[in-house]
Design brief:
The complex is a heterotrimer of chains A (272), B (330) and C (323). By secondary structure, chain A is mainly α. Chain A has helices at residues 2-22, 24-27, 58-94, 96-111, 114-124, 130-157, 160-167, 172-208, 219-228, 237-265. The radius of gyration of chain A is 22 Å and the shape is elongated. Chains in contact: A-C, B-C. Chains A and C meet through helix 4, helix 5, helix 8, helix 9 and helix 10 of A and helix 1, helix 6, helix 7, helix 10 and helix 11 of C.
Chain lengths: 272, 330, 323
């Protein structure tokens, strides 16, 4: 029973934030990029969170930022999962040379501090859309995914139903899809959620050091501007605390959802 | 004055509460274990005997739930005991169990002698390391175990050795009742003999008082048990002295069990081998009336309708079958 | 390991050079700014520097030069911070970063693991219901944001701690008690922000491992012999620690990246800050040098981890010895 409760909490928080990001702007028609307001305003009816040092309404920024961060997280996770599943699956199923070579690539990818790659790519592309940032993050995070998928594939490939399918002369791709991937669906799904959470945090980190998107705004970018404009020293807590809090809430709720699903699919993990 | 029994249970019930249904693994078990007895508990897989063993140990882990009845060990009502009491006075001291998975019961990252140290030290903090080594060494010698084994890690010992070491560790504190659950199932015949000898030695040298031996293998029980209880679908269906039950089984299930085992005794061998038709019942959805009636060749109307209770047949014999109706009810 | 190193050295050599941009640009801009605005002079400088750094030589020659120097222990000269040598720059900034990272990581790892086991044992009870959510939230909190909060509350509002830097700009590093106190003063908030966030992360990870372990046969058996809860917790800790030890080694790579951001938030002049500068200004030599050092340290950490593994788990030890 407890696990159901936890899942509810997680999914509720998640939904609330998503709604804020998607429905919010429709209900409140304020342009987050309108630099015309008075700067550093305290909260008021017109600007519930006040304005930042460039005259932008903070609540509008927040809502737009949520949308962008979610978008980046989603795209990056999809990319990482697709690449990871394909490479990890082939690696774990075929084994032999394919496995060895793919694994060395993966290991190097894992060890390489992704910050390095991301910042350098960011320096290369002077203008970056959220989509590009998402692609960068996705492409640097697939090794972790591939590793996990490979491990799962290896253990699943030993099972009898797979053996049976191979004996029945099913094509390799059919075996892969029907017998192996189908059984990994739960694992892939929960990994996806975790990756999405990680990608959002990665985007925030990149944005903070100036390597994030150069258009629009995201939760990380709001923090970037706050940092650049010394919002902390100036005590403008409404600028930097809400975006971070939302990030934490998003990451935590995603984690809760993922681990509750894990418990659901894997009864061994259920609490007493 | 009647001497207090070592263990007595009355209408003990424990069910597994699952989302798919409730499994009535222990469904009203009343049994008595006397002092200095090797008591066998026999039944097929899935009859609830391992669960019963755990319950008698007070190892009730969810989703297993205590549903009723009483359990007295040395006169102490265990279900009224606190966790503290169980941990410090009961477990290891009054009753000790060697679980079915004895081969994986030892912590793989600790040497045997360290495991012994932890068990001994928990119950007597004053013991020094030298004293502990002495105790361990002496006990191993007493039980005919090589003292070298003390310095090994579990994975460095053979299966049979691990079993014997586990038995030794379980009896370090000289428990009154030792419960062994299928100790010989995973072993070859010669190792089985060694383990059985070890158990007998434990009882003879008074390290333990009584042993409850849970198994599905009648042949093994014949070599060691004094008394026997037959379990089926969560209930005890027959109890009595080992030889008596073997020669003259009263309950149809016991009869079938005895007949399905090849034994050297000519009288039993003459009967020929038979198998028991059908399958053990699903304990979450058992048949009505007598739980054995679907497989019983003597089943009648009353068997389908009512459940027989365990009745005394005199001479220490008990049976739960309408065929053996007697004057005294248990 | 050697293969990984060579591959990595190739990557770290090629990647910056693949990015369009002049490595000398930042340096030349600075020189121009310092009053040498004469375009002729700048061009001469450029030619001098290009020659010095051999940027006009074919790539394979540059690579051999790089590797050759590497074996002699020479990491080259920085472009951005010309004429400082890379090794000097690293030596100057690394101690600060390590002094922050290593204690913070170790402290959070130890505390986190311990908490994780305790929480796993007390699962479902009051302690778990309160502590677990806190740890969960901490684990998902980026430490630069935690840093912001700490900075805001304790430094700006309460004025208990300084806002930036490693030490007061007015003081000169020395070993006096005064300076050390000042150092610790500056050190506390960055340290706390990493420790709090990381402890949550390790605790949550350990909890998952410990919960799996608590269902083990050997644990149930030991418990049935009356062994104390504390001792059982130690069993679980020891037997589930292995993945956490690996995690520690791998973590090293990510932590340095995260330290980069933390150092930025606190204007803490450590290696992270320097890495950031090198990446932004495309300083080939500095990038190569720093990341090679990083890679070597990482591989070393992994090696040490393997050794520790064998020590902790006797089953692996036997495997190694062919038992």
């Amino acid at each position: 029973m407890l696990k159901i409760k936890r899942f509810d909490i997680g999914i509720t928080i998640l939904m609330l934030i998503v709604l804020l990001g998607i429905i919010g702007p429709m209900l409140r028609n304020v342009d987050p990029f309108d630099f015309g307001n008075l700067r550093d305003m305290p909260p008021s009816w017109q600007h519930p969170l006040g304005t930042d040092s460039l005259g932008r309404d903070l609540l509008a920024q927040l809502m737009y930022g949520i949308k962008t961060s979610l978008y980046v997280g989603l795209i990056a996770a999809i990319i990482a999962v697709v690449i990871g599943v394909v490479l990890g699956g082939i690696s774990g199923y075929k084994r032999g040379l394919a496995d060895e070579s793919l694994m060395s690539v993966t290991n190097i990818g894992l060890l390489l501090p992704s910050i390095l790659l991301m910042v350098m790519i960011a320096a290369y592309l002077k203008v970056r859309s959220p989509l590009m940032v998402a692609v960068i993050i996705g492409v640097t995070s697939w090794p972790g995914m591939a590793r996990g998928i490979r491990a799962q594939t290896l253990s699943l490939a030993e099972r009898e139903h797979v053996y049976l399918s191979i004996m029945s002369a099913y094509r390799a791709s059919r075996v892969l899809f029907e017998d192996i991937l189908a059984n990994m669906a739960a694992y892939i799904f929960t990994s996806f959620i975790i990756h999405m959470s990680g990608a959002m945090l990665a985007e925030a980190g990149l944005s903070l050091i100036g390597a994030g998107p150069t258009m629009g705004t995201s939760l990380g970018l709001i923090l970037f501007w706050a940092q650049t404009m010394y919002a902390i020293s100036r005590g403008l807590w409404l600028w930097f605390i809400p975006p971070g809090a939302i990030l934490v809430a998003l990451a935590s709720s995603l984690f809760i959802v993922a681990s509750s699903l894990d418990e659901y699919f894997n009864p061994r993990l259920r609490s007493k | 004055m009647i001497k207090m029994l070592l263990l007595s249970s009355d209408n003990l019930k424990a069910y597994y509460v699952l989302s798919e249904g409730t499994v009535r693994a222990v469904n009203g078990v009343s049994m008595e274990i006397d002092h200095e007895v090797i008591y066998g508990l026999i039944g097929e897989s899935g009859c609830g005997k391992s669960t019963l063993a755990n319950v008698l140990m007070m190892r009730i882990i969810p989703p297993l739930k205590f549903m009723g009845g009483s359990l007295l060990l040395n006169g102490v009502d265990l279900f009224k005991a606190s966790d503290e009491y169980l941990r410090t006075r009961v477990w290891g001291k009054m009753v000790s169990m060697i679980p079915q998975s004895a081969l994986s019961a030892l912590n793989p990252t600790e040497r045997v002698r360290d495991l012994i140290k932890y068990v001994l030290k928990t119950h007597n903090k004053e013991l020094t390391d030298t004293e502990i080594t002495e105790i361990a060494r002496k006990r191993f010698e007493e039980l005919n175990l090589p003292t070298d084994a003390l310095n090994f890690y579990p994975h460095e010992l053979s299966g049979g050795m691990r079993q014997r070491v586990t038995i030794a560790i379980s009896t370090l504190l000289n428990p009154d009742l030792l419960i062994v659950d299928e100790p010989t199932s995973a072993l070859d015949v010669s190792t089985q003999k060694v383990v059985l000898k070890l158990l007998k030695r434990l009882r003879d040298s008074k390290i333990v008082e009584s042993i409850l031996f849970v198994t599905h293998d009648i042949a093994v029980l014949r070599q060691i048990a004094d008394q026997i209880a037959v379990m089926y679908a969560g209930k005890i269906v027959e109890m009595g002295q080992m030889e008596q039950v073997m020669q003259d089984p009263k309950h149809p299930y016991t009869k079938a069990l005895v007949n399905s085992v090849l034994t050297p005794e000519p009288e039993i061998r003459k009967r020929g081998l038979t198998y028991i038709p059908g399958e053990p019942p699903d304990l979450s959805n058992p048949p009505p009336g007598c739980k054995f009636h679907p497989r019983c060749q003597h089943a009648s109307e009353v068997c389908r309708a009512e459940e027989p209770t365990l009745r005394a047949l005199g001479n220490g014999r008990y049976s739960a079958c309408f065929l053996n109706e007697s004057t005294t009810e248990v | 390991m050697a293969v990984a190193l060579f591959t990595f050295s190739l990557i770290i050599f090629l990647l910056p050079r693949l990015i369009p941009g002049n490595p000398l640009a930042a340096l030349l801009a600075e020189i121009a700014q310092r009053g040498q605005a004469n375009p002729e002079a700048v061009r001469i400088y450029e030619r001098m520097l290009t020659d010095y750094f051999k940027f006009d030589r074919p790539l394979y020659q540059q690579y051999f030069d790089f590797m050759g120097r590497l074996f002699r222990g020479d990491l080259g000269t920085s472009v951005r911070f010309f004429p400082s040598k890379v090794s000097e720059l690293i030596a100057a900034s690394l101690p600060w970063t390590l002094a922050l990272l290593i204690p913070a990581t170790l402290v959070s790892w130890v505390i986190g693991n311990y908490l994780g086991v305790v929480i796993a044992f007390k699962r479902g009870r009051r302690t778990d219901k309160v502590v677990y959510p806190v740890l969960l939230i901490l684990s998902q909190t980026p430490y630069y944001w935690l840093a912001m909060i700490l900075l805001y509350y304790f430094a700006v509002q309460l004025h208990l701690f300084p806002v930036a830097g490693v030490h007061s700009p007015l003081r000169v590093p020395n070993l006096s008690i005064d300076f050390i106190i000042d150092l610790l003063h500056h050190y506390t908030l960055p340290f706390l922000s990493i420790v709090l966030a990381a402890t949550g992360w390790w605790a949550i990870g350990m909890r998952a491992l410990a919960i799996y372990e608590t269902g083990s046969d050997y644990l149930l058996y030991a418990e049935s012999l009356g062994v104390s809860n504390r001792r059982l917790q130690r069993f679980v800790l020891r037997n589930s620690m292995l993945p956490q030890v690996t995690g520690l080694a791998i973590n090293f790579g990510t932590v340095l990246g995260g330290a980069l951001i933390t150092e930025l938030v606190f204007s803490y002049r450590g290696t992270g800050y320097m890495i950031y500068q090198s990446l932004i200004s495309l300083d080939y030599m500095l990038i190569q040098g720093v990341f090679m050092v990083l890679m070597v340290t990482l591989l070393l950490a992994i090696f040490i981890v393997d050794v520790i593994y064998a020590y902790i788990d006797p089953r692996i030890r036997t495997g190694y010895m062919g038992g």
